[in-house]
């Protein structure tokens, strides 16, 4: 009976229009929420893949002035369970001087031969060669976006100012050195704008770490088990060695992405809430239209609870159609968001996502069944809550007052 009320053609046109608007609002809200959650999942996946491709699973650092006997420590670590590879590094913040401007960045000295075992830096080279860092002293590989900002290409040179002081008879001056650009790397993420690499020997000379390294980069068997493996390693290391895994060095970024997803979900859920509470208007008008039907049912023995169930089913019938269509539409849109975006770009003649600005050329999307289920359940809950008050009002209709003048 409730479903007959929901889809009957005998309703007034105005009531039917309100019901249609309620369903369309539900479709729009559910589809938008599913699509946006899928796009945010895609962005999080892209961010994780691109940034963590340059970031080792864990770092070992000395609280003293670097690690002197790092070769022995690296050999010991490679023998530990769960550790796949170890590579030394020295890193510091510097100022790069190019043709056009000064730009801050991070200069990291690496063991070129071992770096490929702990990160994907060698695979990210798009121009030049990482191996030339070893064969050519005082050479550097820059992020592609950083090189573009500085106005340099392989074969040019950049001046690097490091946070070290050189004392001369004329006074103390910051240490500067001109480095030859021998390559560019690109991962399509923020490190392209600030990261640069030099060989370990160049880094030791430039940053004043003669024979020492700042720490060791560690790759574990599984990226997601790295925190657990690191916790097992920590008690067995020397007292002056501290260990940090990627969730500590990059965790704030991914926590921020997760929090952003939650906040956007809550904001878009308000659209679903508005559509759900439009059902209140539909049911209130239906109750006003069906007062005589309610009175007849009550005189025939229907209970107040039965009348309430009828109008709850009436509201949920409208909501279920909107939620079902919205979930289907949102899933299809999330699955085919890339070709849809490409079609819009062709139609409008504009590039919506410039890779030089957004690091992406198309919207990434990752549809998760858990997200779809959560959206559907949340929408059903809001719809159920929206039906309770009008259904309760319907159950309180007094048959005698309605039928008095019939």
Q: What would you say this structure looks like, in words?
A:
With 406 residues, this protein is of the alpha+beta class. It has two domains: 2-49 and 253-403, no CATH class; 56-247, no CATH class. It is 54% helix and 20% strand. The protein has 16 helices and ten strands. A six-stranded mixed β-barrel has the order 2-3-8-5-7-6, surrounded by four helices. Helix 2 packs antiparallel against helix 10. The two termini are 23 Å apart. Belongs to the ABC-4 integral membrane protein family. LolC/E subfamily. Residues 20-228 form the MacB-like periplasmic core domain. One of its GO terms (biological process) is lipoprotein localization to outer membrane.
What does the secondary structure layout of this molecule look like, with pairings?
Blueprint: H1 2-7, H2 13-52, E1 58-62, H3 70-78, E2 83-97, E3 102-110, H4 112-118, E4 125-128, H5 132-135, E5 139-143, H6 144-150, E6 157-168, E7 171-185, E8 195-199, H7 200-207, E9 215-220, H8 226-233, E10 241-245, H9 246-249, H10 251-289, H11 291-299, H12 304-335, H13 337-348, H14 355-358, H15 369-395, H16 399-403
Parallel strand pairs: 3-8, 5-7
Antiparallel strand pairs: 1-9, 1-10, 2-3, 2-6, 2-9, 4-7, 5-8, 6-7
Helix pairs in contact: 2-10, 2-12, 2-15, 10-12, 10-15, 12-15
